[in-house]
Structure formats: C-alpha cells, structure tokens
Amino acid sequence: MSNEPEIRKGLAGVVADYTAVSKVVPETNSLTYRGYPVQELAANCTFEEVAYLLWHGDLPDAGQLRKFNEEGRRLRELDQGLIELIDALPTTCHPMDVLRTAVSYLGTKDPEPFTTDSAHISRIGLHLMAQLPTAVAYDARRRKNQEFIAPNLDIGFAENFLTMVFGDGEGSPATNEKDIRAFEKSLILYAEHSFNASTFTARVITSTMSDTYSAITGAIGALKGPLHGGANEFVMHTMLDIDDPAKAAEWVNNALDNKQKLMGFGHRVYKRGDSRVPTMEEAFRELAQRHDGEKWVQMYDTMAETMDGRTGIKPNLDFPSGPAYHLLGFDVEFFTPLFVLARVTGWTAHIVEQYESNALIRPLSAYNGEEQRSVPQR
Ligand code: COA
Question: Which helix (H) or strand (E) holds 25?
Fold first, then answer.
C-alpha cells in the first residue's frame, strides 16, 4: 500500500461541511435556496424577498417583508466618512478595491463587530446590503464626474440602484420595468451558490472566530479573481474585443488551439450546464431585443455552439450576465461589484451557519520540499 497521501487539488470533490442554505445537484442541473428552485424565485420574487429567505430560512409574509424593507431601506445613506474615503481612492483602481475598502471601513464603525449572534449578523448583512449599492453607485458616477444621486428610501432594491447609477431620465433602465426585472433576476441568480470560493473564504475567516466584516472583505477579494466572479467582466472584454459575430467562431477556435481558457465557460460543480444559465439567458435575449443588442446575441450563440462542439463545455452564469449588464449600460469594470451586491446575502447566511456549528477550518498539506538539513556553520 502506498504511503502517499491523497491530495485533492483545489479541494475538488471534497465535502467540507453541511449547509442548509442552498443545494446544488449537478446531475439534474438543479439549484435550490432553502429548498426553493432558483428559477422559481427569479420568476416570482423580489431580491429583498430572496435575501430574507436566505437569512431567515423561509419566504416572508406581507408583514415581515414590509418590516424588512422598512428597516433595510432606511440604511441606504452613506456617512460622510465613507464618502470622503471613496473620494480619496484613485479612480484608476478597480471598483472591487473600492468595495473591499468600503466594507473594511464599515467594520471599523461598528461598536460590536465581534458578535456571533445570528440576529446581529443578519443586521450587519442588512446594513451592507443597503450601503454597498450606494457606495458602488457613488463610485460609478464619481469616475465620470457625474453628480451623486442620493438613494430613494421608498423604492425596491433593483430600481433604487439603477436610479442611483443611471438617473431617472429618458432611456435609463431605472424607468423601464422590464429592465429592472432583468437586473433583479441577475441579482437573485447571483445571491447564493453553496461552498464556492468566496463563500468558503468567508467561512474560513469566520471559523477562526474573526468578525463578519473581515469575512466579507476576504470574500470580496476571492470573488474578484477571473476564475470566480471576475469572469463576468472578462466575458464582456472578450466580446468587445471580438466585436464582430462573424469572427466569433474563429476566435474561440484560436483560443482553444492555444490552450487558452474561455471566461464564462465551465464550472467546478456543474459539468452538464449551469442551472442558472437558462433564466439569465432569457433575460439577456429580452434585453437585447429592447436595446438593439442582436450583435451580442449572435456572438453569444456562436461562441457557445463552437465551444460546445469542440469541448462539450457549457456556459456558466457569467456568460449571459456579462452582455446583459453591458446592455443595461454598466461599465465593464462594475460587473463584478454587481455580483457582490447580490452575493453579500449568501455570504451572510453562511457566516451565521458557520458560527452556529463552528470548527476551525484548517486542512493538512503534504510536504514536498527539501528534507531536513543543518544550517552550514560559517
Ligand atoms: N475554457 C477552456 N477550457 C476549459 C474551460 C474553459 N473555460 N474550463 C475548463 N476547461 C478545460 C480545462 O482546460 C481542462 O482541460 P484539460 O483536462 O485538457 O487540462 C478541463 O476542462 C478541466 O478544467 P479544470 O480547470 O480542471 O476544471 P475545474 O473544475 O477546476 O474548473 C473553472 C472550473 C470554473 C475554474 C474553469 O471551468 C474555468 O477556469 N472557467 C473559466 C472561468 C470562469 O468562467 N469562471 C466562473 C465560474 S462560475
């Protein structure tokens, strides 16, 4: 029998713990949040209802939702300190860095950041869910020398955010109910996905009994990478680079010939297609019809067909959400921050779960460096 330890690179296939937040079943391409299929949630719920579901385990009734919305919406305004901090950050840095810094700052202002109390952590989640959209919108507009649009405390999450970024003038997605719903669907689909890299990062940090802000700051860092949340930006950079749908097949073939990875394709868990793609793809196609985006649909289809034909690898959620966000009018470097606005809900649910049944996350490694040796006498 070999003494070699079994190494599971990237922890692939390792079951690290139980979770009751969401269930991914790759064999049936299914994803449920607290037992509800994500497609049904996207079709029937607001993003706030889904946040409530993730934190409280069930969908709210009308009274619970009203209270949840009242509490959350009045937390939307930024304090002057955060506005000045964002202003001090260079506009050359990535918006994810601004967001990471904003969460870190908010942690310094909380008199009780070290709580392990579930209700208190859900309140931190609600605070971040309210503040981060305002911070992202503020950052987006300052980069274009546009005046800040203050949050509206009386309207839903998606509409308020689109209004803060784009205003409510003619042509703004904030004035079109279908655009608002398309964006809201993307938020619902991005909200939660079990032990993905950023959620696992949040759980690792929480497992040391560190605080929620540290866990979420770390999670933002993990999400930024192109193999995770950063992929939605790379998808659009690629599409803008290809520019012409007639060149898309050749581009994919060249990339594969050169052993390049195509962003927005493949998944560690789903090997036969990402359960979230059909809903987002439909939203993207509808957006394209309303916003003269046939070019991106053609490119999307050609890239997906060529990739499938050559490798059998299917698109993941970032593939339709990239061009969908482009059609809504977002600058590409803001696509991953949009993912944060949604995923902060899932991260918070996992932080609560980790505290409730904690064990320090600390795997082993197999050493393959120099054998023990003595320092030479000089
Ligand atoms: N483009 C090209 N080839 C890909 C690919 C992609 N997007 N995704 C996987 N593959 C290939 C790999 O090159 C590898 O081929 P090989 O066995 O010949 O070396 C094989 O498929 C297995 O890939 P691997 O990276 O080991 O699988 P994984 O489970 O670790 O990868 C991802 C999961 C997400 C990291 C990977 O699919 C990827 O990098 N995708 C692009 C980034 C992305 O869209 N991320 C968002 C995920 S939601």
Answer: strand 22-25
**Residues known to be catalytic:** 228, 267, 318
56: how many CB neighbours lie within 10 A of its CB? Answer: 15
Give dist(CA 358, CA 48) in Å, integer.
28
**What is the greatest pairwise CA distance in the chain?**
78
| Contact by Cβ (8 Å): 357, 350 | no
Each residue's pLDDT tens digit, 226-270: 999 999 999 999 999 999 999 999 999 999 999 999 999 999 999
- For ligand 1, mutation pick of 199, 262, 265 (most atoms within 8 Å of CB): 265
Task: Please report, for the chain, how many H helices and E strands are present, in that order.
Answer: 16, 3
How far apart (Å, rounded) are the C-alpha atoms in residues 330 and 320?
A: 14
Q: Contact 354/216 with Cβ under 8 angstroms?
A: no
Smallest CA separation from ligand 1 atom 24, residue: 268
Mark residue 67 as left, alpha or beta (left: phi above 0; alpha: psi -120 to 50; beta: remaining): alpha
pLDDT of residue 1: 55
- Determine which helix (DSSP H) or strand (DSSP E) holds 341, and give its type and residue range: helix 335-356
How far is CA 224 from each of CA 92, 233, 256, rounded to the nearest angstrom?
16, 10, 24
